[in-house]
Structure formats: structure tokens, C-alpha cells
Design a protein that fits this description.
- InterPro entries: Conjug_transposon_TraN (IPR022298).
- It comes from Flavobacterium macacae.
- By secondary structure, the protein is mainly β.
- It is built from three helices and 21 strands.
- The strands form three sheets. Strands 2, 4, 7, 8, 10, 14, 15, 17, 19 and 20 form a ten-stranded mixed β-sheet that branches. Strands 11, 12, 13, 16, 18 and 21 form a six-stranded mixed β-sheet that branches.
Length: 280
């Protein structure tokens, strides 16, 4: 989960390798189209001009995640061979909405797409610039981490791994989720990713959108491994949101090269118990 210059270098290398030999990095990128063709065996990379704040997949046939260590790169691929046409919506930190039609093609013409600046594809939506002051939300992250106010908002335990939401705070337009992970097993737990989804409580057979992923602005006290008989407390900073009664928040923790995946459900009534962080 930790960011590093090495990861950035490696990611740039991967992007460069996908183009024809001898082309430079910029030449390997294509401008954003209205329609994206994606494959099961290949990853498509979307590079936005600003950090990604939320992702809405039209169906579960799409897999999407932010590139490790990168706020503005979204990686997508098909969940299985062949799927019906769907859509993808992305909101970036400058308050713009990008929407794409997504189709299946195991041999897409391009894999890397870049948008150097907002074009006609972006549409203005409400956004509070003050919520993205980096120094401010990092300071409030530390305050949430060390706050004595605790609450049993939700927890999940499997495979001798325990994950609990023991603190929920808000300041301005950002929410601070304090999550503690305990490893009671004899095997260390390498965290691949921690993801947040707003999901329907009852899955419909066919709906326009069954889940929305909310991407953290910042992760405080971020480490990649929980050793045996050890624990760590993280603070995840998310854009503020509420959940209708028929939906819930899913917090998903995925093990790197392992099968010990945990999913914690948080209902709207738990989110309503959020505590306001005092001014610095």
C-alpha cells in the first residue's frame, strides 16, 4: 500500500513497454475516447489530469482500481471473457465527471489513455476546493489516529485476522475512517489493497449501477504488512458521503498473493454516529 518513487518508475516503465519499440512515453498514450474497449487478459490505464475521487462501474463485469501510489491513474479490465455493453463514470478532485461507454474486446487497439487537460468530456459538478488542502487533511488524519474517542462501528474477523472500524470522524467535506487490523495468526498478512464500496443491500438482477467505489484521498499510518500477533491502526480519508437505507458501505481488505480476504459491512446508522474533529 505504501507509495514510492520506485513504484512510479516501474509504472512508467510498464506504460512505455506497451507501445511500439522506439516510441517515447508520450507517444504511447491515446486521447480519451467516448467508448473504451477492454479485455480480460490485458489492463487498460486511464490517466486523468487530477486525482480520482470516486468510480462508478455500470456493472460488476468491470474491475477497476487506482494504480498503487498514483492518485490520477485508474486501471480497468474485464472480470471475465465477454460482457454486455456497460458504462464507467469517474469523478476527479477538480470536480469534473467523466463518463464512458465500455465494450468488450480481447484485442483492444490501445491500452493507455491520457487526458492532459479537461476537454468537452468533463462536466462541472459541485465541489468544495477547501476539502483538498493536503496539509490540513494530513493534520486532521493524525488527530483522528490519536483521538481517544472510540466506537464499535463495525468489525469482521476471519482467518484469525480481525478488522474493526473503531473511530469515525468528519471535518469539512472529508470523513476520517480509523480502522484497526489485528493479526492473531502465525502468518504475516501482506495488504494488497483496502477498498471502500457503497453497495446495494439486495442485489438486483439488472441495474444501471450496483456499487460505487469511493477512493481515499489519503491514508495515515500506512504500512504494507501486519506481522504475526501484531496490529496496526490506519486512518482513511474519504470525501464525505451518506448512504440510503437500501445500501451499505463495504470495506474490503485484500491480501497480496493470498486468499485471506475480509469484508466489513457498515450500515448507515453507524455512519450517522460520526464525530466532528475540533479545529487545529
Amino acid at each position: 500500500m505504501k507509495t514510492s518513487i520506485l513504484r512510479l518508475t516501474a509504472l512508467l516503465f510498464v506504460f512505455a513497454a506497451t507501445g511500439a519499440q522506439g516510441q517515447n512515453f508520450r507517444q504511447n498514450f491515446t486521447a480519451f475516447p467516448d467508448t473504451l474497449s477492454i479485455a480480460f487478459s490485458k489492463t487498460t490505464n486511464l490517466v486523468f489530469p487530477y486525482g480520482i475521487r470516486s468510480v462508478d462501474r455500470g456493472s460488476l463485469d468491470l474491475l477497476a482500481q487506482k494504480a498503487k501510489g498514483m492518485e490520477n491513474i485508474l486501471q480497468i479490465k474485464a472480470a471475465h471473457f465477454g460482457f454486455e455493453e456497460t458504462n464507467l463514470s469517474v469523478i476527479t478532485s477538480d470536480g469534473r465527471l467523466y463518463s464512458f461507454i465500455v465494450t468488450y474486446d480481447e484485442h483492444p487497439a490501445a491500452l493507455n489513455f491520457s487526458l492532459a487537460r479537461p476537454l468537452r468530456l468533463g462536466q462541472d459538478i459541485f465541489h468544495s476546493p477547501g476539502s483538498l488542502d493536503e496539509a490540513e487533511y494530513k493534520a486532521f488524519s493524525k488527530q483522528a489516529l490519536h483521538s481517544r474517542k472510540k466506537g464499535n462501528h463495525s468489525h469482521e474477523k476471519r482467518y484469525e485476522i480481525e478488522m474493526s472500524l473503531d473511530g469515525l470522524f468528519i471535518r469539512g467535506d472529508l470523513m476520517y475512517f480509523r480502522i484497526t487490523v489485528h493479526n492473531h495468526s502465525a502468518i504475516s498478512y501482506d495488504i494488497d489493497q483496502m477498498r471502500f464500496f457503497v453497495r446495494d443491500a439486495k442485489k438486483a438482477k439488472r441495474t444501471a449501477s450496483q456499487e460505487i467505489e469511493i477512493l481515499p484521498v489519503h491514508i495515515e499510518n500506512d504500512i504494507g504488512t501486519i506481522n504475526s500477533d501484531a496490529s496496526n491502526t490506519f486512518v482513511f480519508v474519504l470525501p464525505k458521503f451518506t448512504i440510503p437505507e437500501q445500501k451499505y458501505l463495504l470495506v474490503q481488505m485484500v491480501e497480496d498473493n493470498g486468499g485471506r480476504q475480509l469484508e466489513m459491512h457498515v450500515k448507515n446508522k453507524r455512519l450517522a454516529k460520526v464525530v466532528k474533529l475540533p479545529a487545529q
